[in-house]
Amino acid sequence: MKIGKVPVDILKNLIIGRITTRREEVLVGSAVGEDCAVLDFGDELCVISTDPITGAVAEIGSLAIDIACNDIASNGAEPVAVMMTVLAPEGTTAEDLSQIMEDAAGAAKRINVEIMGGHTEITDVVNRVLISTVALGKHSRDAMVTTAGAQEGDVVFMTKSAGLEGTAILARDMEDKLKQYIPLEILERAKALKHQISVVPEGMIAGRVGANSMHDATEGGVLGALWELAEASGKGLRIELDNIPVLPETRAICQVFQIDPYRLISSGVMVLTVSPRRQKAMEEALSEAAIPWATLGTVTQGDRVLVKDGKTLPMNPPDVDELYKALV
C-alpha cells in the first residue's frame, strides 16, 4: 500500500469490520470519519482520541499535543490531558528528547492540558522520531458534537486556510530546496503558520453556538475532511471550490512541488456544519474571536460534488496526502 492513511475500503472491511465486541458505555466507537470515541461516565462524557505524528521533524513535540487535542475540540469538548508515546531512533541525544518535551510542554500550557504520562523509548524499529498521543476531554451529555451529525440543508463552514500544517512543515523541513524559488520572507511567514495549528478555540465556539457536526482537517486536507464528514453523516455535499481560502504562501510552496493545496494536510482548519438559522450566530462568534472563516456550500441528500467555474466535479475520497509527494 501507499504511504499515508489506508484506503477507505480497507479501513471499513479489514480494520473497523474486525471489531465485534461492543459495550453500552461506548456511545461513539470506530467509524470512518470519526476521530474520537465517546464514553458514558454518568453526568459527563469522556472524549478520547489518538494520533501519531509521522510527517514532521521540526517541533514535533508541540504538533503532537495540538493534533491530538484538535480531535477532542472537534467534538465540542474541552481537552483535559494527554499521554505521549515517544519512539526515537538510535543516536537520539538527551538534548533531542529535552527539546521535544520542551515543545510539548509549551503547547500543553498554551491550551491548558496536562501531560499525565506516557512512554519514551530508543528503538531501531524507527528511523526518525515517532510520537503517538492519546488525548482525553470532557463535556456535558447534552453538548456532544460528532462528525456524523451533519443535516441536509446545513451550511458548511471552514476556519483559517487550506494546507496550514503542510505549508509550515514544508517551509521548515524543505527550506533548502524552497529558498531557491521562494523569497525568504515568504518562507518565514509560512513557517510561522505553526502557531495556527490548534483548533481548540473554534471547537469550543462551534460547540457553544450549536454546530451539528465538526471535523478537523488533517491528512487528506480540506477536501479529505469534507468527504469524511459527509461519509460519517451519510450525506452529500455541494462545495464551491473557489470559496476555500488558500494563503499566498501555501500557493507558492504547492507550486514548487506541484501539489494540490486542497488535499494538503491542514491541521489548524476546522470544517463544520450548522443549520441556516444558526449561521449568523456562528459567523459573529468566530469573527468576535478573530478566527478567519469561510462558508463553502451546503449539505445535501445527493452526491458529493465540487463546483468550479460553473462546472460540477465529483468529490473523491481522500488518498495519499500531498505532503508525502513533496517529501520524497
TrEMBL record:
Listed Pfam families: AIRS, AIRS_C
Q: Where is the PurM-like C-terminal domain?
A: 151-305
Task: Classify the source by domain of life.
Answer: Bacteria
Q: What is this protein called?
A: Hydrogenase expression/formation protein HypE
The text of the family note is: Belongs to the HypE family.
Which GO terms fall under biological process for this protein? Answer: protein maturation
Indicate the segments forming the PurM-like N-terminal domain, all copies.
33-138
